[in-house]
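Re: the 73-residue chain
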Amino acid sequence: MLGVILNEKEVQEVEYMLKREMEELLLDMSDPRIDEVVKKAMEEKYQIVFKIYKRFVPPKETMKYILNRRNTQ
C-alpha cells in the first residue's frame, strides 16, 4: 500500500484525469468496431480507474460513472 499527500489543486487535477480516462474508455467500449477481447481488457482497466476515482470523490459523484454493461455493448 502506498500513501500520497496532495494539495487541493492536485486532487482536482487527478479527478479530472480519472474522469477523462473513464469517459474515453466508455466511448471506446461502445464502439462496435473494437474486438470483444479488447473491450474486456478495457472493462478491466475501467474498473481499476473507477476504484481509484471513488477514493477522491463523494459517493454521489460516482453514480454517473458506474459501468452499465448494456450501454457498452
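Residues 8-72 form one domain.
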